[in-house]
Amino acid sequence: MSKPQDFDSKAYWSATLRLLFITLFIWFIVSFGAGILFRDVLDGIHLGGYPLGFWFAQQGSIYVFVALIFWYAWRMGKIDREHDVHED
Amino acid sequence: MDLKTLTYIVVGLSFALYIGVAIWARAGSTKEFYIAGGSVHPVVNGMATAADWMSAASFISMAGLIAFLGYGGSVYLMGWTGGYVLLAVLLAPYLRKFGKFTVPEFIGDRYYSNAARIVAVICLIFISFTYVAGQMRGVGIVFSRFLEVDITTGLLVGMGLVFFYAVLGGMKGITYTQVAQYCVLIFAYTIPAVFISLQLTGNPLPQLGLGSNIGDIGFLTKLDGVVTDLGFAKYTSGDKSMIDVFAITLALMAGTAGLPHVIVRFFTVPKVSDARISAGWALVFIALLYTTAPAVGAMARYNLHTTVNSALATGGDVFAPEASLEGESRPGWMKRWEATGLIAWEDKNGDGRIQYYNEKSKDEAFLAKADAAGWKGNELGSKAKDGSFDGKVDRDIMVLANPEIAGLPDWVIALIAAGGIAAALSTAAGLLLVISSSISHDLLKGIFAKNISEKGELLAGRIAAAVAVVVAGYLGYNPPGFVAEVVAFAFGLACASLFPTIVMGIFNKKMNKEGAIAGMLTGLLFTMAYIVYFKGIFIEPMAKNEAANWLFGISPEGIGVVGALLNVSVAYIVGKFTAPCPDHIQHLVEDIRYPRGAGTAQAH
């Protein structure tokens, strides 16, 4: 199997890149944003016994990373099917 | 049954398990040897990747680092997990679609150049050997501490075991033994953490325990109070500058995504979509340990301080003479671990009691009170190589002695030994495999002996793996003085050389070989020079390693980020002024961007 005749590689690639930028934006916000740059502000808020910025740096960012990869894989799967370039 | 016998039994059983798995999963072809036949289930691959990735440093050292750095330890937590997001969206699926055996092979084909392939092999070998030396050392140390044999014997046993399953089983044997090793190490890591969290906060989940109350006050608030009472920096703040924290985190993330032994694991799954999902599973298994580690570190730090100064837990006067622990009645674990030099006590003021505090505190009022109480300097630390007293407690003790500090049963202590060995062996095996395949597949089959038969290549792979085991064992026995320093090296180099070059190869189809080679060399040499300049590997450091001297305030640990930026800039500029990338390569790049037609990896 190879790519179908009417495969619009430009549209597929721009959909892929859009998803990629959204994913990396979230990746950046939860780690570099919440855990480092805006930590001092967030530390004023508490999540249980955790200052929020500290929680993002040592716990929260990791949970979001995990969810983010599965979400990305699911959305990529949808894009693949819409453009008929999925496997099997 | 005494602790030593129990430890022998637990470690022995884990070894029997690995050997059994290795015999069951022998490699018969080069495809099985390099990429486990390309048929590993994504969840299984995720678990193997987690074991591959989590080294002796993750298992033994990281919680201790966090314990003493507090918030500053976050760079390791975010840096060593966030890289998997980069892997999933930027590298793994595309390299899987490309469908070859090794990372240098991708670089060589994409940049239509044997020179690029050789530069990639050099980067790979340097990164992997520095790493593997640390693992073998870790095996030797765990053996000598828990089983009371000397380091050489421990090393030989470890080498023998890795030799057995890496050389015989190749990637296939390694994959399935790594799955077994993951189970051993995660069990060993979380059991003590659950007990300790329960003891201190009443919450069995360490991830929640860290945010729970101790008595009627938040645990982290209490810990902040404990460490500042002793003149240390507040636990939830730390003292690294923001730009440095930022740069180190980014360098560790990109470095993780650029490590060949991690990337190559994603060549073993059947489909492109599996490669994406598998990165998610890998991070699930890694997150189990990485979200537990901050709790282990914080709680171990709390236990250590409150053991040495009883007033800290009750809120009494920490400077009262009777608050400090009497040297003679110090707990058994302290005496036992003193034999290893990881912890040491020196009675500087001769009062027979241990004062453990920050003698270099920035808090003048605290130092004045300490002075008034007759404290003559910090008395708890470790033994330096020359036998003198070093005022820093070795960070490794926070995990290794953790069950004993918390008074947990012997079988938990035995588990820690088995877990530490599992963490070191699984990473060592993965590294040895990428070293051997870069030699047999990239250098021999790809460049210098193109006519070699499949059987010959498989034999060459095995011989290369065997030689690599011996070299790694030698480096572990006779570590170059800079083993600790080269960790920064491995990540910085991966971040500045392989990672940007691979990403450009996928996302910029016009990037040509001149640009890529120039960029890779620039990133590599700049990062290497900067680290050597401050850390002085092979030579004396040329400048003191302190913030005032750093470029933009970025420490050698984080400089890979600047190296990566230089790599990309140079590649673009050189690419602009040299021959454009040929059409068939641009088609190749278009072809790896969508999943259909991946098939399993092919040798040719």
TrEMBL record, chain A:
The keyword Membrane is assigned to this record: yes
TM segment ranges: 12-38, 50-74
Domain (Sodium symporter small subunit): residue spans on this chain: 10-86
Keyword entries, A-Z: Membrane, Transmembrane, Transmembrane helix
InterPro entries: Na_symporter_ssu
Source species, domain of life: Bacteria
Protein name in the entry: DUF4212 domain-containing protein
Organism: Sulfuriferula multivorans
UniProtKB/TrEMBL annotation, chain B:
Transmembrane listed as a keyword: yes
Record keyword Ion transport present: yes
Primary location recorded for the protein, binned into one broad class: membrane
GO cellular component, one term: plasma membrane
Gene3D superfamilies for the chain: Sodium/glucose cotransporter
BP GO annotations: carboxylic acid transport; sodium ion transport
NCBIfam families: Na_symport_lg (TIGR03648)
UniProt-recorded name of the protein: Cation acetate symporter
